[in-house]
Amino acid sequence: NFSGCIAGGKQRHDSVAAGISRVSSRLDLIAVHDAARPLVTPAAIERCALRAMDHGAASLAHRVVDTVKRTDSAGQVEESISRENLWAMETPQIFQRELLISAYDEIAASGESVTDEVSAIQTIGRSVSLEENSEPNLKVTIPGDLVLAEAIIKNRTGSGLFRN
Fold it and tell me: ∠ at Cα 45 (41, 50), nearest 5°?
C-alpha cells in the first residue's frame, strides 16, 4: 500500500523515476498516465493492461491521420512524412515492473532524457505493443483543448448535442 504524495521532478522522466522507486515489489505491472489526458476510459485502460500482460510493454495510441511535414528551423517545409505505420502515443503506458525499472536504470546511467516510457523501453532494445484507441483521449495543453474535453464529456454523459 502507498499513501502520500511523491514530489515530481524537473522533467517527466524524473517524475516517473521517483514514482517507480515507490512502487511495491509485489506488483507485476506499472502504468504511467498523464494527468493531461483526463478523458481515457476504463475500457481503454483495461485493454492496454491486458496487452501489457501479454507482451510485457504496451501503450494506448492512435493512428496519425493528419498530413505531417518536417520543417527547417525557420518553419519552411522540407519534406512530407508518410502516415503509413505512423502512430501518436497516448497514456496510459503499461509495463512489466522489472522491465520499466531496467529501462529507467539505463536512462539514469546514460543521462538521457525521454519524453515517454515507450522511448525508455526502446533504450534497452525492447519493443512495445500498441493498443489502438478509438476513443478521444486528447492531451489538454492549451485553453482550446478544455473546450474540446468538455464537449467530449458532455457527449459521453448524454448531455451532448450528438447523443441519442
Answer: 145
